[in-house]
Amino acid sequence: MLQENVLADQAPAVPATDRIAIESWNDKEISGTVRNGDAVRLNIYLANRRMVSLDASVPLVHFDNATFQVNTEFFPAACLRDINLTIEHADGAISSFNPNDVRHVSNAVPHSLYGGMWIDYPDWEERLNEKLRDGVVSETVAELIRTFVADGYVVIPQAVSPEVVAHVNDRMLDVWAGQVPGHKIEVYGESVQVVDVDSKYYSQAHKLLDSYAFIPEAQHAASAPAVVEFMSAVFEDKPKAFQQLTFEWGSQQAIHKDTAYVKIDGNPMSMMATWVALEDITEGTGELEYYVGSHRSPDYIFGSLSKWMEAAPQEHEDFLAALHADAEAYGHRRAKFLPKAGDVLIWHADLAHGGSAVTRHGVTRRSQVTHFTAAKNAPYYSRWSGFASNVRNGVEFVSSYSNVTPD
Known about the structure:
Layout: E1 2-3, E2 20-25, E3 29-34, E4 39-46, E5 49-54, E6 61-63, E7 67-71, E8 83-89, E9 94-97, H1 124-133, H2 139-151, E10 153-156, H3 162-176, E11 184-188, E12 192-196, E13 206-209, H4 216-222, H5 225-235, E14 239-247, E15 271-277, E16 288-291, E17 299-300, H6 316-330, E18 334-336, E19 344-348, E20 353-355, E21 367-374, E22 390-392, E23 395-397
Parallel strand pairs: 14-23
Antiparallel strand pairs: 1-17, 2-3, 3-7, 4-5, 4-8, 6-7, 8-9, 10-19, 11-12, 11-13, 13-14, 14-21, 15-19, 15-21, 16-18, 16-20, 22-23
Helix pairs in contact: 3-4
């Protein structure tokens, strides 16, 4: 389901009445009753922009004339603060309820219903000029930000030194030799498995998971100074690395948006990712591809409610198809990344990207992808995972698989 983000459809400023009773409002469900049993429509607003209007139940939302229940299990916890419900009654009255008394009165809202960073607001350029004037950012970083806002990504050539790249590649040999205990790997194809690293998986499609938790060299590669300076400026906070994927081969992953799968319980749109080339990448090896500017296409809302695919996995194919349709509708050019070793591409949370087709089989595409959010945010897995983090070079590293090795 595509959502056109329009402000004309704001929640009416109507106080709650005694005609509805909220029974629960948490990260599992929102539920309640309509005391007179005369409800005819349920409207759900997020930050005063309507997400869905229902006169009957849908998979994630039960609604009838007397009860309602919204499944929020796969909904960012931070966004629960900004939800408002209205019930339209048979006699024309409207009941409105939000336990946090949300009052959004400004038209300065981010592009996405689900939030954003300061660069995602209409006044981003004014704020950037203020930061330049106050010496908060350099002109070099400001120019990167302008490109990032326009295209949804930036490239920083040679951000990771040849020495660090060589050290990471050497340590990857140790990983495959079984010398790094506890390191996990995701093997994918017809099915997906997360298992201990074993050399028998080397030639298969795979991702090494959170290498930075086990080898400090991977932390150094992810925290190159120029990258940290840029991300710190955009996050207005210390970056937090919360997931890392190391590739030997091209993934051939379909064009997608990370926000469907990579979940943050804080501001879900406060996210960036880096793609570090661990060797010179050549065409035909499954190189990274993306739709330039696609981070500004409309939200795809799963199950009429969530940015996350798990809320309605049956819609996954529709979601993927919508990204190509958006690119055609909005004129987003398809491009590829053919970097030299040490080059870094940083992309916006909502940039549509994937792995192109492999036509040169047996040729490696060594690379490392790291997902970041602002330090104040928590990844979704923090609901159950409590491993120790580590700070290096101005980045906090945390993993869902292990404590992060400090040295």
